[in-house]
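In the previous lecture we treated proteins in isolation. Real proteins rarely work alone, and many bind small molecules. This record shows how such a complex is specified: first the sequence, then the SMILES for nicotinamide-adenine-dinucleotide.
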Amino acid sequence: MVRLALIGTGRMGLIRMRCMQSLPGVTVSHVIDSNADQAGRLATQWGVNHVASTIEEATSLGDIDGFVISTPTGSHMSIIKDIAKHAPGKGIFTEKPVADNPTDIEKAFQIAKDGGNQICCSFQRRFDQTYVTAADAVTTGALGKVHNVNVIFGDHPCPPIEFLVDGGDIFMDLAPHDLDYVFNALSDTASSVYATGCSSDPVLQEKGVLDNALMVVNMKKGAVVTMQMSRSAVFGYDQRCEFFGTSGSAAVTNPKEHDAVIRSIEGSKTARFSHSFPERFDVAFKKELETFKGVILGKGTWPVSEEECKVVQSVADAARRSYEEGRVVNIE
Ligand SMILES: NC(=O)c1ccc[n+]([C@@H]2O[C@H](COP(=O)([O-])OP(=O)(O)OC[C@H]3O[C@@H](n4cnc5c(N)ncnc54)[C@H](O)[C@@H]3O)[C@@H](O)[C@H]2O)c1
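The predicted 3D structure, ligand included, written as tokens:
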């Protein structure tokens, strides 16, 4: 049995708990949250014995083979430091991004390396069969040379204003998922980015928070990527990506709640898209943790590298600067 400790019992923490509980060969040995009551409630609900509010406390309660960090991005660095100190050599899975800028990402990876810990950063598109199949069409050359990629990220439901104001920067929160996916599929990175956007709510506007944005990314090998992002896809979680190449195209479309089509004289009706990310990426979230288990057992490799994590955040950061300064930003 691989013993995993869950750190963070919020939105992603609940998803990760469900995934881990369904994985053969895995046991959730510890629940850790700075909010001890919340950690205690989740541990009781899932029959987990050890509850702690810090890594040091958790490691004193029993052995841990790997840590699953599902806390807010700003806390990842100090948690990685604590794991390297109190549990050297153990696996670290973390929600994206490792940190919100490339310098801190490098620091976090260095701290982990010094402790003999490996960081496995989540980017669930890498584990989703639809995204993987479309990327394979690119990497096998089935599409010829890819010149254009069009991405749509429609979030649903629209998060509360407080969330958006506190840490819901559209370039930092949404864009990294598709940047990582497209860069990896094209085996390429950005040479420049232009970004613009708007705020649909006066409070967001006043705080300078965008809930709709568009990015145009020029790739080093010549392809052009457009990314349209919105916080309010009122019709369901809308995640699309289409590659256009000299020999064909590959599209990631949305799975629906069911595939029936009801036709009448008024037109045709189909099911809604998935409600949100927990439903849409249910299988991928599980596959990520299954792969993490393999990494801990020395039977698998993690597909997302430190360099890729840094590149994605540097382009997300450049997009924000492009919007603020109203110009194309070249990427070093
Ligand atoms: N892959 C995805 O689609 C996806 C979706 C949403 C969020 N995320 C990522 O997941 C991470 C967590 O986001 P969330 O929305 O679940 O957060 P959340 O605010 O819902 O939950 C965070 C939990 O962490 C706890 N916490 C905070 N600091 C802590 C610390 N230092 N030690 C222990 N516990 C601590 C809080 O008490 C809370 O219970 C973020 O990095 C975010 O970017 C990824």
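Summary for your notes: The chain has two domains: 2-122, 125-284+310-330. The mean pLDDT is 97.
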